[in-house]
Amino acid sequence: MRINANLLSTVALALSGASIVSAGPIAYGLCQTDCNTVAVACYAGAGFTFGTVAAADAPAAVLACNSALGTCSEKCASVTLLAPTTS
Hints:
Elements: H1 5-16, H2 25-45, H3 60-80
Helix pairs in contact: 1-2, 1-3, 2-3
């Protein structure tokens, strides 16, 4: 399967607009939810269902979705887990 440039552009745009709140572990969970929502949409745009594609059989479009999810998840961890929590 050929990687759809429009799909990758949409995923990149969605990830760049993901909101990150400085509130510690709660914000981390919310941020991860945003990342996973985008990953599900990315898979759907590529014609697959998130969580049903075996790694060995993954086409390039699914690998791109996984890469975007990893980047988003890393950003969530690096920003929100280090942020102070307030009471």
